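cron nightly-structures :: item 1 of 1
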Amino acid sequence: MNFKVWIILLFLTCLTFVIGYFNYVNAAFVAIILVTVMIKVQLIIDYFMELKNVTYGYRFIPTLWLLVVITLIAIAYYF
């Protein structure tokens, strides 16, 4: 299972790199990049930090941190 997650992480990283490499910088692509970052970090939290099968409280803390950071980045970009 970790290999499949690693392949997904690799694909999302390459997607983010391609968007950045070709300078596709507008609001839609920034939103796409932030969503891919959310997906990547959530996969890392679930599978590589092995928090998928623990109680919800332990999964909630890093997920909340992720949402706060992504929201602050989005606010900083859009304003």
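cron nightly-structures :: done
Helices lie at 2-21, 27-48, 56-78.
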